[in-house]
Design brief:
Length: 220
């Protein structure tokens, strides 16, 4: 059965600014694959909680990992309803009025319940997360120990119910030219600076390929 397009459920269909809605799973994948930071939210005893987490996409789901001792992870592992948002800021849209000013962005909102991953596939998928954050890093370090795996909770969240929203282009206002007020877009890009070694040993070693590659093409 074909997976639904983003935005096809009642809860994820945009009712305002529908022209920014994108019903293309490939576009959703591209946004998710271009970043590593998401914000995860749920409600506990009437109190909303939202925390930032690293993530990686694995097919039609995302993977999130964290400490097994964290209450946030324990609650999510119970299958409570959750919302995950991913946003890429591409530019500040400066209109001739503050009312019409905006931002260029790409965003994904995912609704559902997380499932905890255990068993033989856990280590393999945790390595997939690590390589998703810093491609190639897993092959440069030792394998995780049983103790480290036990201290880590791995969750998956299906992309079955999600919406994609994108804003691009110049300001949209009714002022027109001739006002003497500047308008346009300030492009915003993530830039990775030169890596800083942690100690004398690292200072004497060659910077690994995964780190060099990330500096050239950062994800966040």
């Amino acid at each position: 059965m074909a997976l639904p397009k983003p935005g096809q459920t009642d809860r994820t269909t945009l009712n305002r600014l529908k022209k920014r809605s994108v019903e293309d799973r490939d576009e959703m994948y591209a946004i998710l694959d271009s970043t590593i930071l998401c914000h995860v939210g749920y409600v506990e005893n009437g109190q909303p909680f939202v925390l930032p987490y690293a993530f990686a996409r694995d097919g039609d789901r995302i993977l999130i990992h964290g400490s097994s001792g964290a209450r946030f992870m324990r609650e999510l592992a119970k299958g409570v309803p959750t919302c995950v948002t991913v946003t890429k800021l591409d530019g500040m849209v400066v209109a001739r009025t503050t009312f019409d000013s905006s931002m260029n962005y790409r965003s994904v909102v995912i609704l559902g319940s997380a499932e905890e991953i255990t068993g033989p596939e856990k280590n393999e998928l945790l390595e997939k997360v690590s390589n998703g954050l810093l491609p190639g890093r897993v092959s440069e370090v030792r394998t995780s120990t049983a103790k480290e795996l036990a201290a880590t909770t791995l969750l998956s969240l299906a992309l079955d119910e999600a919406s994609v929203k994108v804003r691009t282009g110049m300001p949209e206002d009714d002022e027109g030219s001739g006002t003497g007020v500047w308008s346009g877009v300030i492009p915003v890009h993530l830039v990775a600076e030169e890596p800083i070694p942690s100690d004398e040993e690292s200072a004497g070693l060659e910077v690994p390929a995964s780190v060099r590659a990330y500096v050239k093409n950062p994800k966040a």
